[in-house]
Amino acid sequence: MSLQKANKNKIIYSEETAHLFCPDNDLRGRKFGRLTVVQFAYKRNKNYAYKCICDCGKECVKTRDYLLYDVKSVHRSCGCWRKEEQQKYRLKTYDFRKGTPTHNSWMAMKSRCNNPNNNQYSDYGGRGIRVCERWSTFENFLADMGERPTPKHSIDRIDVNGDYCPENCRWATKEEQNNNKRNCILVTYNGKTQNFKQWCKELNLPYYCAIHMYKSGKRTFPEIIEYYKGK
Ligand SMILES: [Zn+2]
Questions:
Q1: Strands 186-189 and 192-195, how do they pair?
Q2: What's the gap in Å between 117 CA and the centre of ligand 1?
Q3: What is the pLDDT of residues 82-128, one digit of tens each?
Q4: Both 114 and 167 in a single domain?
Q5: Owning domain of residue 207
Q6: Cystine design at 194: which of 71, 131, 171, 198 (Cβ 3.0–4.6 Å)?
């Protein structure tokens, strides 16, 4: 008679089932999965329970049914086996990243480029901006970009007409990104090119007045600098 059957039906005493009648001793020292039985712990109703020590070093109490029948032998542990498996699974799927700032950015990026129902689609996917093949998995995206540094940061494409790919992207704040907008005015002065706002910041010029002067064509950029020098 198999042990399983013996357990389910009324146990009939025989040589084979003798150990079931002296539960305090029969499992002592035996190993089930990661668990080694230390000693009989208690009997509750028809359940025998044993103090076990796990390979990981933790002590626990498991029932006889658990040790002998309930789960696949390799799965028997203090609980550490299941935890490890879950961890492995999470690492594999990156599911545990869902809802983190970096994951949210990644999702939003894909949506802007791939989902015509996204209200920003016309500025992204709609004008040919794509997410590179490599970044179709979050794992790669994270490896290339790192974690989103602060909530103020978002993905900035250095070439605003370029794709989302490692060479063209960085984390940047709104301010940093505004310096890089499609409609920004680039000015070359003393061999250096940057946008108007950056020049104003660097040279301490009043932006709105200066850009108005520049756009209206009243003064060239060097003339504007000269104009404010005297002020
Ligand atoms: Zn364990």
A1: antiparallel
A2: 49
A3: 999 888 877 666 666 778 899 999 999 999 999 999 999 999 999 99
A4: yes
A5: 186-229
A6: 198
